[in-house]
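Bumping with the actual sequence this time:
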Amino acid sequence: MFELRVRTRMLASALALSAACAAGAWAAGAASASKTSPPTASTGGYGTVTLESAVVTGSTYPNNQTTSFYFQYGRSEAYEAQTPVTVAGAGTATLHVKATITKLLPDTIYYYRMVALNGSGTTYGAVRQFATKKVPLTFKLSLPYPRVQRYRRGFTVTGVLSGSGSAGHQFVLEATPFPYTHGFKPITPVRLTDANGFFSVSLPGLLENTELRIAALEPLPGHPVFSHPELVPVAPVVTLHVGPATKPGFARLYGTIEPAPALALVSFEMFAPHHKLEYVGKLVINGRPGRLDRFSRLVRIRHAGLYRVGVRTPGGAQVSGYSRLLSIG
């Protein structure tokens, strides 16, 4: 009976020892596996996104080994570029990381994923994407030279729309005439910019000083983009002719003014040698707004030179107009 008890105790001890050895071997194996496993890689969301940069995030579990990471990115899942390889750390805690991607194209979709690596291998995170910001639309309006346009004479304005979506973009030309208190109103039908954002608009002519601007029609109605207003000064059309006079030393200067505003001052001017301007006569006409009127005056020709007529209009609706230069004498 005693011998049976001893054998039973010896068998129990052997079983316990075997179990302990097995548990130790499992723990050692688990620890060994932990030390030889690659890290995890989880692609996170993105932070601040601008026209040409973005902040991307991710996390990794290093599995008790020194672990590094980087982000692959590109306009397709072929990933044309990557961020610098950076050490994240070691240990058994999840590490949260981020990187800034630069030199991106505006208004473009980019794909990215996190990559984590240690001595045991490399792990790739899931694919995510973001879109860089659009370049705001801006207009540049160019007026012909010289800036002053003649009454009812046609001219052309040109310009360019810059920014995302500028090609084939809808726009209208708007105007507000003197005294600029009635707001801008479209004066052309809806048109399209060309493939490079350029445009050209021909106008039949203006009646008075007018501010022009371009309105780019956004996809969302009621949210247009305007160019900076540009003032187009308008001057009356002045013609000048010279005729003989019965009085010696004089010439008859005559012509037309369109339109001829009331109380417009007509001055007769001569460019003497060295381009010195001299006034050789004047008169006031009582014209009718919007109508053509005529003028005539005997002018004493003291010197041979270039003569012209200038018309100064009161009220501010138009600027001064001048005739062509005539050689007399």
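The tokens above came from a reply further down the thread. Residues 1-8, 14-34 have pLDDT under 50 and may be disordered.
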